[in-house]
Design a protein that fits this description.
about 270 residues; mainly alpha; Serine Threonine Protein Phosphatase 5, Tetratricopeptide repeat; 15 helices; about 70% helix; TPR_rpt
């Protein structure tokens, strides 16, 4: 066979057209929301809505998920609840409804949808993590620990799970164990301000001292000392609070007023 015949055989027939590729809006929007690419998700959702029938359930689910990602918690809860009441048992709906209720301070009402989410889709780490926090609110510590463990095994964002588990241990009065959790989180994200602050609080509550990091400038170290002093004050350790706050005043003028105000609530040191 000649090259000409080969090329002719490969050429498309006159008038024939290839079908247009189908855009998987649901998957792309889910990926964008999960990756915190909110503007991208908004743009794709607008395109999807204009190409869909009014009231399309997949579009409504994406709309509710986007509202939750944007922090519009009450709107998200209303939307998820409406979809759920209409008979949907979609994992994303149960997960979103549970997370929204949890953020609205309705931990007890979040347990059922979150349990449904992990039962039907056991690979969703956010549902497990939210369920763990909900169990914390109910002081169901063994259940929360198991849920945190499952979330940690599944997640690609271990710092978030470690932070929440550390706070859980602190709430249980297990600050020494929380220290271990926050130390591990700090190895993964050494500059995460949330992990640093919560880790310092765990150290103070466990009766251990905090130490300055090489990355701490004068303001950063003074802030940490001030926060540590306030934690010590809250747990009733006036001596530690006075020591931390006094040291903070020597490190940075910026934090002197805050440290001085906290020191004033302690009163003079007894002879």
């Amino acid at each position: 066979m000649s090259f000409a015949l080969l090329l002719a055989a490969a050429a498309p027939l006159a008038g024939a057209t290839s079908p247009a590729p189908t855009v998987d809006y649901a998957r792309m929007i889910d990926d964008a929301i999960d990756g915190s690419r909110i503007l991208q998700a908004q743009t794709m959702l607008a395109q999807w809505r204009s190409a869909s029938e009014p009231g399309s359930r997949p579009v409504e689910i994406a709309t509710a998920r986007l509202a939750l990602a944007k922090g519009e918690v009450q709107e998200a809860e209303t939307r998820f609840a409406a979809i759920s009441n209409a008979g949907s048992d979609d994992c994303r709906v149960n997960e979103g409804l549970g997370i929204a209720r949890l953020r609205l301070g309705r931990a007890g009402q979040s347990l059922t949808p979150l349990s449904r989410a992990v039962d039907s889709c056991p690979g969703r780490w956010r549902a497990w993590s939210a369920l763990a926090v909900a169990y914390d609110q109910e002081q169901s510590w063994s259940l929360s620990a198991a849920a945190y463990e499952r979330a940690f095994q599944l997640t690609d964002r271990p710092v978030q799970v470690l932070n929440n588990y550390g706070l859980s241990l602190m709430a249980q009065g297990k600050a020494d164990k929380a220290v271990v959790i926050f130390d591990n989180a700090r190895k993964i994200a050494p500059d995460d301000a949330r992990i640093i602050a919560n880790g310092d609080a765990a150290y103070v509550m466990a009766g251990q001292g905090i130490s300055r990091r090489p990355a701490d400038d004068a303001d950063g170290w003074a802030k940490r000392l001030t926060n540590a002093g306030q934690v010590a004050l809250r747990i009733g350790n006036a001596a530690k609070a006075r020591a931390y706050l006094s040291q903070a005043m020597t490190q940075s003028e910026r934090f002197m007023p805050e440290a001085a105000a906290a020191l004033a609530t302690i009163g003079p040191e007894k002879p």
